Amino acid sequence: MSARLVVLASGVGTTLQAVLDACRDPSFGAEVVAVGTDRFGTGAQERAVAAGIPVFTVRLEDFPRRETFDEATAERIATCDPDLLVLAGYMKILGKQVIGRFRTVNTHPSLLPAFPGAHAIRDALAHGVKVSGVTVHWVDEGVDTGPILAQAAVDVEASDTEETLRSRIQAVERVLYVQTIGRIVRSEEGT
After folding, report:
1. Does 77 appear as a known binding residue?
2. What is the per-residue pLDDT across 71-97, written as a single tens digit (0 to 9) for each?
């Protein structure tokens, strides 16, 4: 039996696509049952629709308070009965209404605990680090503070811009994230 994944994404959906591609192989042990977004018109939505995956959108601006947004997001996720919530470039911080209800995994473009937050690549370059990378971690109520599941280093080149470093990190990130999700879902099959 495959684990049920709900993927939340905000952008073009390259990480989502890597997960969708992995799920095509039955030995991966998971299937994406829904994709959620926080805005309309994203590449992630287009990729999900092209793959025949149901899409839902819950927008923060449609709610009077952050708590009601988180409650609505949690309720929408719950209708999909996920075994694992996967954040794939989802650019909203989720509250306890979601995190306390669903086991959630995320990927972040730095070697946490260094450079948490939305500008990790820019921050790494500004600090002049020689090595950056990617971290896959469980999500808790902090910002990029959950227990680390996997990390991979990416060298920072002297000529790197934010865009070039992001591109190299994302290439490593997609592989590491898919491997980690696969390990999580397959280890649970045996329990």
Report:
1. no
2. 999 999 999 999 999 999 999 999 999
Q: pTM of the predicted model, to two decimals?
A: 0.95
Domain range 3-189, its CATH number among 3.60.21.10, 3.40.50.2300, 3.40.50.170, 3.20.190.10: 3.40.50.170
Helix axes 162-189, 14-23, angle to 10 degrees: 30
Q: Does the annotation list 85 as a binding residue?
A: no
Is 174 annotated as ligand-binding? no
Is 127 considered catalytic here?
Answer: no
DSSP for the chain reads -PEEEEEEE-SS-HHHHHHHHHHTSGGG-EEEEEEEESSSS-HHHHHHHHTT--EEE--GGGSSSHHHHHHHHHHHHHTT--SEEEESS--S---HHHHTTS-EEEEESS-TTSS-STTHHHHHHHHT-SEEEEEEEE--SSSS-SPEEEEEEEEPPTT--HHHHHHHHHHHHHHHHHHHHHHHHHHHHT-
Report whether 166 contacts 140 (CB < 8 A): no
Q: Which residue has the tokens 């999500």?
A: 139
